[in-house]
């Protein structure tokens, strides 16, 4: 199938992004548009009340967010909305992040709206869809994996293979399951979870915080969202276990799936703004833009630059507020961009989004997994996980295998929840960079699988080490350690000051994968100043971490080896 390559109909400037008029005739009226405002109201005009924001969201913003605009929680100006209504325009969805509303406009009202002095631009609402389309030809099937006898404390059933591929079983065996982290999903409906054993513990413990519908449409029967949730956070020992099976869950139904109905991005924006206000820490998006029915308008491949699609703009805004965004790369891959859309979809093109491609259980790239780069030349996807024959909740009560980047993405989102469990201070970009640095192709990323298949154990271990270093730097301790020179090419000296009595300590060096590569000292330190010598020459160049441990007291820092 050929990709939809429709141009946008109206000029609009968002930052440096310019939308050009299409040459094609406008579709029949009315059409749903985004109406962007210049500001949120000035002078004596009315201002919208701030939306309620949960304490969890405020705490996350303070901990991980960047510079936050003062009016981020206020919607568009009531005066501007009243002016639209005077023209006979009914605002449908209001976005406080975009300072915009969606509305259906006839050709007559379109010109009048564009002429309003407080309107910055107008453009049609785009469409999104679940990324669960089966590839046209059979894929290499992964055989169900038999549980390793006596190897693990938990029984993972057929989900063992997908967990083992990303090295997450050892993390789960340490009891790291996303507890205390809020995971949000933007997807189709999830239905009645009470019938499915994968969600029994979640429901019993009250960890499904809320599921809210943003479509204003009847139930279409799609349970794509349920399958996605099961991969990330299901728990039915002996059948299926997800990495974030201890996390709190929020779900936004933003997709109405019948093909004759547009899948509209305004639902996505509204759902994401709600999830952020409810205090989510990580959001999974197994949705994206690609091909559309004849006559519908959409973005082109050239628009996948991280700054054009409204869903990408909203995803970047969520990341700026401290939410780690994880998105499927898309199922648009094939042998050549002349034969299909080929490239990643939105919001996977966003700068701050962790974009996930798909592989089989052998580690080979799935033929349908979308390629990078972005239209502005950035490497995408970022990382990869299993997306071929993924074991998941496939019916009201049962399980099955399915394919798609829809199911590689929630595996990574679940691991992100584990990372934030052990180090809640990490921001979205730090999480992304940590996953990249510990993935299978970290030294040689490409536009097929990015930095490669994630290594959950290495990423979580490194996150723990970073948390320990931060705690040690912030808290007074009876030990102190400094290193010189740093960077180092050969001999280095650790100067350790000990309290007024001998103390047992161990000085360890770790690489970026969290592996202990050297123990320069282990024993009793004399009171006062001790000089511990270390030869870094045998270590390959790179960044390392050192940790000085004394029982529960740790002092840590970075060691840079150069040649």
CATH class of the largest domain: Alpha Beta
Low-confidence stretches: 1-27, 133-151, 472-477
CATH architecture of the largest domain: 3-Layer(aba) Sandwich
CATH fold category name of the largest domain: Rossmann fold
What structural class do helix, strand and pairing data support? Answer: alpha/beta
Going by CATH, the homologous superfamily of the largest domain would be Peptidase S8/S53 domain
Strand content is 15-25%
Round the mean pLDDT to the nearest integer and report it: 85
The residue fraction in helices comes out at 10-25%
Distance between the termini: 52 Å
Count up the helices.
12
* Total strand segments: 26
Q: Based on Cα principal axes, name the global outline.
A: globular
Can you put this structure into words, describing what you see?
It is globular, with a radius of gyration of 25 Å. It is α/β, with parallel strands linked by helices and 563 residues long. The chain has helices spanning 55-64, 78-86, 107-114, 160-165, 169-173, 200-204, 224-233, 265-277, 310-320, 405-422, 428-437, 456-474, and strands spanning 12-14, 17-19, 31-37, 93-95, 100-105, 119-124, 129-130, 182-187, 208-213, 235-236, 240-241, 248-253, 282-285, 287-288, 324-328, 354-359, 383-386, 390-393, 399-402, 480-484, 491-498, 503-510, 516-525, 528-535, 542-550, 553-561. It has a 7-stranded parallel sheet, sandwiched between helices. Strands 4-5-3-6 form a 4-stranded antiparallel sheet. The chain has 3 domains: 12-129, no CATH class; 168-466, Rossmann fold; 476-561, C2 domain (Immunoglobulin-like, Sandwich). The longest helix has 19 residues, at 456-474.
């Amino acid at each position: 199938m050929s990709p939809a390559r429709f141009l946008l109909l109206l000029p609009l400037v968002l930052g440096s992004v310019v939308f050009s008029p299409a040459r094609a005739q406008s579709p029949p009226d009315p059409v749903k548009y985004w109406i962007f405002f210049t500001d949120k109201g000035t002078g004596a005009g009315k201002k919208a009340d701030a939306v309620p924001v949960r304490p969890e969201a405020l705490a996350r913003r303070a901990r991980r967010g960047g510079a936050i605009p003062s009016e981020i929680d206020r919607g568009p100006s009531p005066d501007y909305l009243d002016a639209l209504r005077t023209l006979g325009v009914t605002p449908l969805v209001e976005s406080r992040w975009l300072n915009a509303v969606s509305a259906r406009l006839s050709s007559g009202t379109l010109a009048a709206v564009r002429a309003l002095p407080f309107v910055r631009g107008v453009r049609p609402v785009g469409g999104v869809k679940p990324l669960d389309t089966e590839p046209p030809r059979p894929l290499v099937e992964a055989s169900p994996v038999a549980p390793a006898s006596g190897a693990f404390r938990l029984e993972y059933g057929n989900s063992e293979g997908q967990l083992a591929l990303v090295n997450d079983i050892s993390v789960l065996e340490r009891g790291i399951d996303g507890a205390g982290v809020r995971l949000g999903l933007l997807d189709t409906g999830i239905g009645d979870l009470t019938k499915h054993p994968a969600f029994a513990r979640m429901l019993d413990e009250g960890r499904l915080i809320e599921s809210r519908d943003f479509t204003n449409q009847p139930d279409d029967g799609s349970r794509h969202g349920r399958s996605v949730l099961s991969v990330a956070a299901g728990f039915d020992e002996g059948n299926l276990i997800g990495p974030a099976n201890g996390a709190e869950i929020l779900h936004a139904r933003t997709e109405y799936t019948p093909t004759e109905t547009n899948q509209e991005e305004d639902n996505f924006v509204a759902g994401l703004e709600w999830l952020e206000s409810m205090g989510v820490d990580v959001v999974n998006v197994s949705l994206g833009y690609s091909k559309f029915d004849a006559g519908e308008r959409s973005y082109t491949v050239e628009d996948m630059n991280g700054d054009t699609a409204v869903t990408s703009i909203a995803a970047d805004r969520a990341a700026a507020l401290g939410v780690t965004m994880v998105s499927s790369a898309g199922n648009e891959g094939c042998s050549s961009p002349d034969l299909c859309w080929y490239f990643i979809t939105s919001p996977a093109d966003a700068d701050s989004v962790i974009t996930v491609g798909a592989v089989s259980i052998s580690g080979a790239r799935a033929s349908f997994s979308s390629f990078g780069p972005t239209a502005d030349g950035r490497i995408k996807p970022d990382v990869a996980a299993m997306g071929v024959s993924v074991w998941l909740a496939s019916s009201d009560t049962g399980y099955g295998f399915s394919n798609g980047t829809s199911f590689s993405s929630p595996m990574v989102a679940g691991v992100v929840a584990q990372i934030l469990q052990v180090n809640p201070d990490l921001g979205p970009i730090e999480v992304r960079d940590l996953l990249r640095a510990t993935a299978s192709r970290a030294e040689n990323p490409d536009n097929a699988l990015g930095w490669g298949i994630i290594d959950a154990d290495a990423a979580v271990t490194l996150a723990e080490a970073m948390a320990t270093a931060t705690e040690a730097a912030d808290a007074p301790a009876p030990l102190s350690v400094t290193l010189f020179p740093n960077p180092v090419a050969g001999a280095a000296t650790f100067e350790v000051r000990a309290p007024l009595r001998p103390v047992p300590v161990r000085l360890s060096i770790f690489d970026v994968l969290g592996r202990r590569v050297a123990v320069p000292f282990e024993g009793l330190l004399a009171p006062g100043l001790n000089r511990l010598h270390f030869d870094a020459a045998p270590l390959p160049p790179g960044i390392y971490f050192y940790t000085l441990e004394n029982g529960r007291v740790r002092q840590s820092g970075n060691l840079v080896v150069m040649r």
